[in-house]
Structure formats: C-alpha cells, structure tokens
Amino acid sequence: MSPLRFCFPTTFYPPYSFGGDAVGVQRLARALVKRGHEVTVVYNKDAYRLLTKGKEPRGVAANDGVHVVGLESDVGWFAPLLTQQTGHPMANARRLRSILDDGRFDVINFHNTSLIGGPGIFSYGRDATKLYMAHEHWLVCPTHVLWRHNRELCDERQCLRCQLVYRRPPQWWRWTGLMSRELEHLDGFIAMSEFSRAKHREFGFPHEMQVVPYFLADPDPEPGSAVAAFDRPHARPYFLFVGRLEKIKGLDDVIPLFRSYEDADLLIAGDGNYETPLRELAAGNPRVVFLGRVPFERLRAYYQHAVATVVPSVCYETFGIILIESFRQKTPVIARRLGPFPEIVERANGGELFGSEAELVAAMRRLQADTDYRNRLAESAYRASIDVWSESAVIPRYLEVVESFGR
Predict the structure, then answer these.
(1) Confidence class for position 63, pLDDT limits 50, 70, 90
(2) What is the value of pTM for the model shown?
(3) Looking at the domain assignment, is residue 175 inside a domain?
(4) Of 41, 246, 268, 304, which one has the greatest count of Cβ atoms within 10 A?
(5) CA separation (Å) from 93 to 40, 80, 170, 190, 368?
(6) Is residue 226 part of a domain?
(7) Which among 114, 111, 303 is positioned nearest to 216, based on CA atoms?
(8) Count of the separate structural domains present in the chain
(9) Distance from C-alpha of 161 to C-alpha of 64, rounded to nearest angstrom
(10) 8-state DSSP, 273
C-alpha cells in the first residue's frame, strides 16, 4: 500500500488524556508513522481542562513523528460544553473545517469526538475516506459506558433519567435524529471487540462494524524475544489492579476480600475520582496498597511479578487494554465474566474468569498455589499477545479495513 495521509480527530490525546482509549489512538498513530504514513492528530485541550477543573497534565508531548494539533478556544471550557449540548463543534468549527477540508487527507479516522465536534464533525473532510472507531459506546449511549443510573448494567434505554443521575446536561440533540443523519457521511465503522460490535447492534446501531482490536508495540528487538526482567517491586506476593479509580472498575468487590485473604496483598496502580471512597473501604488493612499513577516503564515490573492481574470491571468495556498489557509481561489475568473479557481470556488461554466473590477467591488461590499452572497460563498469554494483539498482527488488519472502506 502506498503511503497515506491520515487525520485522527479525537477529544483526548496524551498527555491531555485520562485512560486507555487515548493511549490506543497514540499507539495506532505511531505504528502508522513507522510504516511511512503521515498522521495528524487533532484533539481538544479545553475538554481535558473542563474535566480536570483547569489542571494541566503531568506529561509532555512526545517527539515521535506524529503531527499533533491541540485545539484551544477563546471561550475555554465553554467550547466543549457547547459541543456536548449541541452535537456540533461550534467554537472550533472554522478551525476544524479548515484542518479537515484543506488538509488533503486520504483517510479521516474519527475516534472519540464527543467533546471535540460531536456527530456534527462527521460531514467535514471533503473526499477523504471517513471512518469511526468506537473506543466507547458513545454512538449508542450518552454516558459512553452503558452503566445505567451509575449503578447497574444497561439493558433498556432510560437515557434522560440516567444523564440526570450522572449530573450531566441532557443531550437534547440525541432525540432530533442528528446522529443518524451525520453517520451517513461516514464510510465505515470499527469496533474494538466482537462483544462491542454485538452490543452496538443490540442497542440499535444500524451500520455494520468491522472488528480491529487494540494492540501493543512489537517486542524489542524482534517478535518472540525474551521479556526483559525487572527487579521485584514489592516484597510480599501480590495481585495487581491497574486502571482509573472509578466506581465502574469494580474494586468495591475486590478490596474487602483482602481482609480475610492473608496470603497476598492487593496493589492498586492508578488514580481517579473514586479514590477517596476506595481508600476508606481499605482503611486499616495493610494488605491493600495504593500506588498512585505509575509510569508504564515502572508498571511493567509490577505486572511481571504479580501472581495475576485482577480486572473486575462491572460495566461493559469495549476491549480491555489492561489484559493484553498483563499478557505481554507473562502475567495471567483474573477477569470478570463480562463484556469482552471472556473472548480475550479464552482466545489467549491466559487466565481465569469469575462471576462471584467465591469464584474470584478460588481463582486467586489456584494461581497462587499452583505455580506450574500459573506459568502455563502466563506463557500462553504472552504468545497470544504477540500473535493476536501486537502491532505486526493488527496494523495489516487495520489497513485492510481502511482499504475496504475506500471510496
């Protein structure tokens, strides 16, 4: 394939970002640049500032060959709020149209556009091939996560009441047909897992979706090379949680178990708006350790020496980057039997699934007590991380899908 010019409009992008979806976009952009393509990422700094109440990110922009444009409006945080309310770019419309229409891009891959342009941005881009990659369930859910009333899995639409529970202004444009009309400007849609594709269909999404999963960079120096060894970061045996500290991540079900599970600790890597309630839940228990946000290079050591990585999310994720990050460090996972986790764990034979506290504890005891069993899962998980979820495995699939969407 000849080199292509890509544009990635997205709300968040490192360092102005929060979670795995932005990291996934960055990995995709870097992988394409390595293969000789040009990539321009357009994101919204004001959206990040709106959600952090004006705070700036800790990291710095990377010098990796990706051309990055961070939008900032004269009206500041009010710009993404206008977009959330109207479904259109509003304050940034002229700048975005100039970039997308005049950039002469071959492919415009929209990612999370909720606060950078809403569905109103989909008409921008002239004759480029245009596709949407669904990192969340925003296409069918105003709150993105299908977690109804902030307390239960969503199996029936109650969108207005749900948005009020989340204390978010209702998106009245969702009842006007705007989304359906603007989707007609796109040539194709990508889901991150078979589960997410099926869930979109279940909630009435009318367009066919192709599946292209998240991936990790190929091992250095070549696929199949040994995993670099890191010194043990924690003296006692431990299970690891990695992710944003939010209610939907399910730690409420895990932390109390370590009052009676005395053979190992629970290490929690991450921060977020639910950290205070979780610390209160763990108060007085020395076996629960909060590490805060851990840089990825240090995080690799925590993955590598864990008995297993626990992934207890109670909502419908679209994929599960944490699982394949753990696999890459030859560490099995214990994941809730929910969403895309079963398809990932079973494809890799890289861990165990649980649906109750008793099943979780039983899995923890098995993996800690039977080292040979744990190591067999770890080796299988690592091999799948190379064969299924590596850059070399996924990028050709992505480019094949892009080509199939071409006009």
Answers:
(1) confident
(2) 0.93
(3) yes
(4) 268
(5) 17, 12, 22, 25, 55
(6) no
(7) 303
(8) 2
(9) 44
(10) T
